[in-house]
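Notes from hallway chat w/ T.B., transcribed later so I don't forget. T.B. wanted the structure written out for a chain they're using in a teaching module, and asked if we could keep both sequence and structure tokens in one place. Agreed to drop them here.
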Amino acid sequence: MPQRRNRWNRTDIWSILVAGVLLVGGTCTAAEEVIVTGKDDRQIRGELIEQDEQQVVLDVAGIRTTLPRDEIYRIDPVPSAEQVYRQRRAELEDDDLIGRAALVQELIDMRAYDLARQELAALQRLRPDSAQLNRLERTIDARLRLEQTPPGERTAPDPDAAPSAASRTADGRLTQEQINRIRVYEIDLSEEPRVHVPRATLDKLFLRYIEDERIPRSQAAQANVRRARGHQQLALIFDLQARELYGEVEVAHDPPALRDFRSQIHRQYVLNYCATNQCHGGEDPPGGLALLNTHGNTDGTVYTNFYLLDQYRNEHGRMIDRATPARSLLLQHGLARDAAIHPHPDTPGWRPHFRNTEDARFQRYAQALRQLYQPAPDYGIDFPNPADAQRDAETGTKTDADVDAGSNAGADVDTDPDGTTDAPVNDQTDETPAEPAEADD
């Protein structure tokens, strides 16, 4: 997008402070940090050096910047962290734990660590076992250690680098943060789901995408976005394909596709048929695909099993085929051998679950899988895949090119790493081609 040419864009390191934290009125003196609002509603933050009737001079990130007085609408002092905290906290109910946790993160971003600890301690008294609150506490500790380290010795990783994206719980299940990422990618906005987008996330969105014409410029328009319902705010994030912010959005409940997976496929089929101790729930699971079969209806078990199934593929195809669900190995392996395109491998004690592809349960499960987002998104989760480990042990370590080549080529449409294909769509319209009549094979 071409650069907008106006006097407010003379350097790309100027900070744009979004609306909602400005103090109305107030006199400003030299060497005070201020926010200058232009007549076009653009805002610049810097240290006031001097001002007169013709101009205002700021120090913006170390750059002396002169602004014509006739282009300025107002100048306001930057509120202190204490003022911001009191204003935000007054807007939140005591039982709004999600909003209060977002406030803690905002205070961390402002480097107001004492206030962040104060609010966090109050939250931890209400939710002492919360993984999210424990993560915030670790973030504060990491930030403080980093800031106390001389600049030349700062080799520690960024404490905000999404630790949960590369971890799992002690019992081998996805973390709550990883579960939430799946919910974001599979959400159906047409159902107006309960979603919370933290204020700090909207601030980042306005700042990082300020040059995009879809971002509101005026304080009033930005305030309208903040007052909008969570799913409407998420629609804007999706529209901008701001994938780096997806992990900050909090989805309260299962999206329709995961809701049906939980209540139908997982409860009735995966737990009672696939993940038994004699099959994928045992010590030596076929194909290296080990599924969980304890605490069956918990989020940790449901989403971990879904993720493992969704990631699994072999020379016959994918365990969950989103484009043609009836060809999913998950369903094919439950068919009688004479009705399956890819029958279940020979396993002692195996018996079919479906008579044929016309079986009502087969059709119902295929319809549930059809609700999943297409193409299969990259959830940004680093979680061990047992099938990959087994293939590496049998054939030697493979490169990414080896995995994607040969019989797996074209098995699915993977997410483009530049972010051009995997933004969740807002309508869940099914444009999948008609599935072949498999009973004849």
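Follow-up for T.B.: Residues 1-27, 154-166, 397-441 have pLDDT under 50 and may be disordered. Might be a good example for the class.
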